[in-house]
Amino acid sequence: MSEVAVIGAGTMGSGIAQVAATHGWRVRLVDVDAAVANRAIERIRGQLDRAVERQRMSASDRDAALSLLSAASIADLGGCELVVEAIVEDLDVKTRILGEATQIAPRTAILASNTSSLSITRIGESIGCPERTLGMHFFNPAPVMPLVEVIAGSASAADCLERAVEIAAAWGKTPVRAKDTPGFIVNRVARGYYLEPLRMLDEGVSGVSEIDQILKTLGGFRMGPFELMDLIGIDVNYSVSRSVWEQLGRPARLQPHELQVRLVEQHHYGRKTKQGFYSYQPAHPYPAVVVARKSFELPDDVYKAVRLFCQAGTDESGSITEQYVFARTLAAIINEAAWALDGDVATAEDIDTAMRLGVNYPRGPIEWAERIGRRTCRHLLDTLNRHASDGRFAAAQWLRT
C-alpha cells in the first residue's frame, strides 16, 4: 500500500490527508504537536461522518479511510513514497522542515511543497535534493476543489513530475503542469480580476456592488471581485498580489492597489473580520468602501474598441459603462494569460483548465480570447494603453501573433 506523509495539520494539510486516505493511501499526518494532528484527524472523522449522512459515501468506505490515518512525527517517514508539506508560507521554515524529512524518508521519495508563491527551485536547492523536489499546489478546501498545480523546479526530475501527476489523478484531482514562476498559473492570471476592478473603483467608474454585479452578469463569474477578495481575505489577496508583482520585476499591470493596502492597515480583511469591501454586521452585507462616483465620457476610440470586444465577449447586453467594466477586466485577465504563454509557464490547455477549476471562471482566458479574436483583444488593449500613463495594457506577444 502506498504511503504519504503530510506535514502540517492545519486546514490545508488535513484536507490533503483526507483526500489521500479516501483514495486508499496510508497517511502519516505530521505536526510539531501530536495533539494538533490528532485533533485534525477528529475533524476529518466529522467531515466523513457528514458525507455518510448525506449518502455521499458508504460507512464502510469511511471506516476504511479513517483506518489509514495516523498522527506521526518526522521520525516516522521511513516508508513514504511521497512527502507533502503544507505549513506556513515561509521559505526558511519550509526548507528546514523538508530538510529534516529528507534525512528520514526513502532516498526515492518525492518531496512536494504545497506553496502558492515560493520558488520550488530555491526550496529544492536549499534542502539538497532539487531533482526530487516539486510543487503540488492544492486549492482550499482540498477535499472539494478539483485542481492541483504540479510545479517543476529547474532541476525537478521528469519521472518525479510524472509520478506526481499520476498521484494527483489517482486522488481524484485534475492535475495541470506549470513552470516554477511567481504565482504559477492561477495566482498569476487571476490578478487582473482584482486589480482592474480596484482601479476602476478608485477612479469612480462604478461602485463595489455594481462592479461585482456587472462581472457576474456580463462575464458569468460566480462571484464578483470584491465579494471574492472578502471571502479569500484581503490580507491574503494583497500578500499574493505583492509577492507576484515583486518577483516578476514590478510590472505596472500587476502593481497592488492602495485600497488593498489601506484595508489591510485597518485590519478590515473581509468576512473573517466582518468588514472589508462589504460590511457583514447586518443580515445582508452592504458596501463598506465608498468612493466618489465621477461622470466620465469614454474617448471615441475606447468606446468603439469596447463595443467590438463585447460583441463576441459576452452574450449579455449592458450600458457602455457596464461593458467598459467587463471589457477592461477581461482584457487584463486574457493579457496576463498571454504573458504566461509567452513565458512558457504552461500550455494553453492547462492555463484554461486551471482557471476554470481553480477559481471557477466560466471559460478559460485563452479560449475566451480565441472566441473574441486575438486581433480584437489586442486592439482593445492597444487602445486602452494609449490612454494609460503607466503602459500596463501593453499586449503580450501571443496576442500579436
Explain what this protein looks like in three dimensions.
With 401 residues, the protein is of the alpha/beta class. Helix content is 51%, strand content 11%. It has 17 helices and 10 strands. It has helices spanning 11-22, 34-53, 59-67, 91-104, 120-127, 158-170, 186-189, 191-203, 208-217, 225-232, 234-247, 258-265, 300-313, 320-342, 348-359, 365-372, 374-386; strands at 3-7, 26-30, 69-72, 82-85, 110-113, 133-138, 147-152, 174-179, 278-279, 286-287. It has an 8-stranded mixed beta sheet, sandwiched between helices. Helix 6 (158-170) links the parallel strand 7 (147-152) and strand 8 (174-179). The model has no long low-confidence stretch (mean pLDDT 96).
Question: Which secondary structure elements does this structure contain, and how are they paired or packed?
Answer:
Elements: E1 3-7, H1 11-22, E2 26-30, H2 34-53, H3 59-67, E3 69-72, E4 82-85, H4 91-104, E5 110-113, H5 120-127, E6 133-138, E7 147-152, H6 158-170, E8 174-179, H7 186-189, H8 191-203, H9 208-217, H10 225-232, H11 234-247, H12 258-265, E9 278-279, E10 286-287, H13 300-313, H14 320-342, H15 348-359, H16 365-372, H17 374-386
Parallel strand pairs: 1-2, 1-4, 2-3, 4-5, 5-6, 7-8
Antiparallel strand pairs: 6-7, 9-10
Helix pairs in contact: 1-2, 4-5, 8-14, 10-11, 13-14, 13-16, 13-17, 14-16, 14-17, 16-17
Brief overview, please?
About 50% of the residues lie in helices and about 10% in strands. With about 400 residues, the chain is α/β, with parallel strands linked by helices. A hairpin with an 8-residue loop joins strand 6 (about 135-140) and strand 7.
